[in-house]
């Protein structure tokens, strides 16, 4: 029996890592990669494959299956979820026939609320936690561009089957994916969330890219204020983040290509729906829950909600 892995969402994250998997397991007898796509992306990938462009080269990959029809997709052993956070429930509802009691979910979203939302829909399934560090984006339907050399994938769970997680880790590593199966996954996911939430909120509110934020004293101060607010919430929640998490996050930003911005900012500029609820408003709500003041996050939610 082949291990069947579904990739739900062929954006910057799902398209890139799904592409690496599809390339590695093309015509494999052991692993089958299924792209779950719709609209123009489904049409392009079905006809021409998925193109991945990096700083060094470009390649075109073909999955075993690409479809949005549950009958064609079939039953899945693993489902890697990488849609936008506002699409979680709708996208999973559309393929619920592909989910068995043994299907393991790996959410790779920008926010931290996805595992709980998926578990609410599928209470009997194992839902891992995961996050990635990568700068990648959709150039056009079926075309993914990755900028820079940084690409890391972290995942884990305190309760899921170690055997299944190690099997998935082997599949990732054999595909050349720099992945880490970690014990303290919630801390790892929140460390990433500190980075992405503050960056998405600052770039979208200021309408600036990474370089512009770093070069402007007022923009940099606003960014640091966001870091201070979100790390205070993490501390009150009892998460074990590095003592110098704020400085570490600033250093990560300084190593990020200066001309890039967050996916939320790109969506805002393009007039698309943005992940405000999961990336910014979630922090405000956690602040209310744990009685931590978040004045800068409050201001940004108010501005971007208009």
Report the portion of residues in β strands.
15-25%
Give the overall form. globular
State the assembly state of the protein chains: single chain
Q: What is the helical fraction, as a range of percent?
A: 40-55%
Unreliable stretches: none
Number of helices: 13
Tell me the distance between the termini: 51 Å
Number of strands: 11
Q: Topology as H/E string?
A: EHEHEEEHEHEHEEEHEHHHHHHH
Within the largest sheet, what's the order of strands?
5-2-1-6-7-8
Largest sheet: 6 strands, parallel
Q: Using only CA atoms, what is the Rg?
A: 19 Å
- Overall mean pLDDT score? 96
Structural class: alpha/beta
Can you describe what's shown?
The chain has 13 helices and 11 strands. By secondary structure, the chain is α/β, with parallel strands linked by helices. The strands form 2 sheets. The chain has a 6-stranded parallel β-sheet. β6 (76-81), α4 (88-94) and β7 (99-107) form a beta-alpha-beta unit. The longest helix is centred in the middle third of the chain and has 22 residues, at 185-206. The radius of gyration is 19 Å and the shape is globular.
């Amino acid at each position: 029996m082949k291990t069947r892995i579904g990739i739900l969402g062929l954006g910057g994250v799902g398209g890139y890592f799904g592409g690496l998997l599809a390339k590695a397991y093309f015509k494999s007898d052991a692993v089958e990669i299924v792209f779950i796509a719709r609209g123009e992306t489904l049409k392009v990938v079905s006809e021409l494959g998925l193109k991945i462009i990096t700083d060094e080269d470009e390649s075109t990959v073909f999955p075993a299956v690409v479809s949005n029809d549950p009958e064609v997709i079939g039953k899945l052993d693993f489902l890697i979820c990488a849609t936008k956070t506002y699409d979680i429930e709708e996208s999973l509802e559309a393929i619920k026939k592909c989910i068995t009691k043994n299907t393991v979910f790996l959410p790779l979203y920008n926010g931290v609320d996805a595992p709980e939302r998926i578990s609410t829909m599928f209470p009997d399934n194992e839902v891992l936690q995961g996050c990635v560090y990568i700068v990648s984006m959709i150039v056009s339907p079926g075309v993914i561009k990755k900028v820079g050399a940084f690409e890391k994938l972290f995942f884990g769970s305190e309760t899921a089957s170690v055997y299944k997680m190690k099997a998935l880790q082997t599949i990732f590593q054999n595909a050349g994916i720099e992945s880490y199966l970690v014990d303290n996954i919630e801390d790892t996911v929140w460390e990433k969330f500190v980075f992405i939430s503050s960056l998405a909120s600052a770039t979208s509110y200021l309408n600036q890219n990474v370089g512009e934020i770093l070069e402007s004293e007022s923009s940099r101060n606003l960014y640091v204020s966001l870091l201070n607010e979100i790390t205070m919430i993490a501390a009150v929640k009892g998460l074990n983040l590095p003592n110098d998490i704020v400085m570490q996050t600033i250093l990560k930003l300084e190593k990020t290509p200066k001309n890039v911005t967050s996916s939320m900012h790109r969506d805002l500029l393009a007039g698309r729906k943005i992940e405000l609820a999961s990336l910014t408003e979630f922090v405000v709500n956690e602040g209310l829950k744990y009685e931590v003041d978040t004045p800068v996050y409050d201001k940004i939610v108010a501005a971007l909600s208009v």
